[in-house]
TrEMBL record:
Belongs to the class-IV pyridoxal-phosphate-dependent aminotransferase family. Its cofactor is pyridoxal 5'-phosphate. This is Uncharacterized protein. PANTHER family: AMINO-ACID AMINOTRANSFERASE, OS05G0244700 PROTEIN. The gene is gb24511.
């Protein structure tokens, strides 16, 4: 773990703590991001770090260090951990200070990072054969908050819990206009019956780094004739129902197929509410 409050990398788990008066803890005034560790290297670190800084700007959180220093800290923390496969999660917060709403009493912004070894929430069988998804009854976040990775993840937690209670792997939000949005910690993608790869537009949801990477790489499949086109666009629940394939996209997956037939259930479940 790294802590700017302590001022260095921490290897003793007993010392990996955050002060309870940090405004991230008791007011949710913090943002975060995550980068995958593969073969000891950080994948797409710059994209994830840039997104962290965008989130921090929206949340009016300053950074205690310049971008390049933050980047160096993340690389050094990963190296010190010895982790070869896993992830590094990192936060910018308003910092410790008091228990009021305003950050005026904080000593200054804080930066934390922690490395975790790879764990999977899906079995290899699920990764091969697919998972079940449902639509969630939990209200969507407002686009302003959905577009930043803040630590306020209660809607996401409740959406996942609802899915698990109903025997599903995860859930998907459908917005008030009937368009497919995103999952609790992942984007979604569809392949239409015409061979088009479609990802829901990012205007109301988080622009996932894995989703954007897919949009950058998938045109090669168009060139080879495996896909007709690739785009990010609004896709209605009815259009999703007619798609032949659906998948979840996230750094930790990175691609998870959704079981055949779930798309129809996904839409009908929403329309029945």
């Amino acid at each position: 773990m790294y802590s700017s409050v302590i001022g260095g990398i921490i290897l003793d788990p007993c010392m990996m703590v955050i002060r309870i008066d940090d405004h991230m803890v008791h007011r949710g005034h913090g943002v975060f991001d995550t980068a995958t560790i593969s073969e000891g290297c950080l994948y797409e670190l710059d994209a994830h770090l840039d997104r962290l800084l965008v989130s921090a700007s929206k949340a009016k959180i300053d950074t205690p260090y310049p971008r390049e220093t933050l980047r160096s800290i993340l690389i050094q923390t990963t190296a010190a951990s010895g982790c070869k496969t896993g992830s590094i999660k990192y936060w910018l917060t308003a910092g410790p200070g008091d228990f009021l709403l305003s950050p005026k009493g904080c000593s200054g912004p804080a930066f934390y990072a922690i490395v975790t070894a790879a764990t999977t929430s899906a079995s290899s069988l699920q990764s091969r054969e697919g998972v079940k998804a449902i639509t969630t009854s939990v209200p969507m976040k407002h686009p302003f908050f959905a577009g930043m990775k803040s630590v306020n993840y209660l809607p996401n937690v409740l959406a996942v819990m609802e899915a698990e209670e109903r025997g599903a792997y995860s859930s998907v939000w459908i917005d008030e206009e009937g368009y497919v949005a995103e999952g609790p910690t992942m984007n979604v993608a569809f392949i239409t019956k015409y061979g088009e790869l479609v990802l829901p537009a990012f205007d109301k949801i988080l622009s996932g780094c894995t989703a954007k990477r897919l949009l950058a790489l998938a045109p090669k499949l168009v060139e080879s004739g495996l896909l007709k086109s690739v785009k990010a666009a609004r896709i209605s629940a009815d259009e999703a129902r007619q798609c032949t394939e659906m998948m979840f996209l996230a750094s930790g997956l990175p691609v998870m197929p959704v079981l055949s037939g779930t798309v129809s259930l996904l839409v009908m479940d929403k329309l029945a509410k």
